[in-house]
Amino acid sequence: MTLLRTVLLAFTALVLLPGTPAHAQSLKGKKVLFVNSYHEGYEWSDGIAAGVKTVLGPTGAQVKFHNMDTKRHQDEAFRKEAGKKAREEIEAYKPDLVIAADDNAVKYVLVEYKDAKLPFVFCGVNWDASRYGLPFQNATGMVEVALVKELLDNLRVYAKGGRVGFLTVDSETERIEGPWYTKQLGLSFAREKYVKTLAEWKDEFLKMQSEVDVLLLGNYSGINDWNEADATAFALANSKVPSGGMYDFMMPYSMLGLVKVAEEQGIWSAKAAVDILKGASPSSIPVVRNKQGKTMINLKLAQKAGIVFKPELARNAQVLK
Question: Are residues 162 and 199 in the same domain?
Answer without folding.
Answer: yes
